[in-house]
Amino acid sequence: MIDRQHQLSISAQAKVLHISRGAVYYKPRDVSPADLMLMALIDQLHTEHPHMGARGLRRELLAKGHLVGRRHIGTLMRHMGIEAVCPKPGTSKKCPGHTIYPYLLRNRPITHSNDVWAMDTTYIPMREGFVYLTAVIDVHSRAVLAHRVATTLEASVAVEVLQDAFERYGAPNIVNTDQGSQFTAQAFVDAVKAKGCELSMDGKGAWRDNVFIERFWRTVKYERVYLRVCETVLEAKRDIAQFIEVRYNTERAHTSLDDKTPMSVYWAKLALMLKKAA
User: Fold this and answer.
1) What pTM was estimated for this model as a whole?
2) Is the pLDDT of residue 91 over 50?
């Protein structure tokens, strides 16, 4: 954003961009090995016990011999993009000024593919560092329609994943997300509405509103991420893609799908729906 060759001074450019002059010179520090280790432990505990906040996680970590303060755990949780799933005041919002849309799925039957898609982002630990995985899942079939590994939690990544799903599989009636800033951003909202989809958002801290993709996160972490810790971002992209596109979508049978795979159910239900429509 800052052009050091521009005729405007750096101070003037910072003022125009509404950022402090000091921020122009700030260089982010790498996360320490100790914090990376704590973040990996926090991720496992959060995946297993999503209701735990910083205090509960601190108790668990202390029991495992890790001396760490509650505030430091809270800071790491913010870096990871996670929070405890418990009731919070309705006035609390992820990003001031962003519109929060109502939850549309309560008591609503979902009977066919491309009726409702769920979308979310989760933290993925690596050997040194971490990345974020964003995915779109068809709620009826549990099929993962698009996904992307990235190093940031930006709205542009969420838009790219959604557009990829649109291009490959059409558009659903409803897209459901949580209240993360990447999903309440205007660019994401516009991408959803441009396809004629309704946008639905989970209640604040109500993880059960998006339970299908939460179950997928647990699957991908316990069946792949925690067993094969990746060294690089490229390795993480390839390994997660292989698990999702081959193992999860086309090989791994689901009890809830009568021992069928997600993609087989997705295409079967879609074909049946199109046949009825014709």
Assistant:
1) 0.77
2) no
